[in-house]
Design goal:
It is built from five helices and no strands. It is mainly α. The chain has one domain. It is globular and about 35 Å long. The chain starts with a helix and ends in a 14-residue tail after the last helix.
Amino acid sequence: MDLEKRAAAPPEDRRDHNDLGCQRDHSDITAEDKLAQHRLELLVERVHQLGPRPLYELLAEIAAETGERELIRKKLERYAELDPRIVEALGADGFPPSIWRAA
């Protein structure tokens, strides 16, 4: 589904696509995997709330520990090119509803 069609689609038609627009396959995800994913989402939300500097420090630590500074820079450049209005229109500015989240 191209960006324009996805942006115009109702939210329920947008929620199971990754950042490249590919349909996700959830068939082999265990409850333990889902819980670990939810925990990661909660941690990401918390770090995001802290602002840009803590996020930078986190990425700098990961780069230093893994030697993947160039990979992280390339990924950041790619994400920095995204149009925030399109990301929001696609419903990709937050995590999808989860059975682990309180309604």
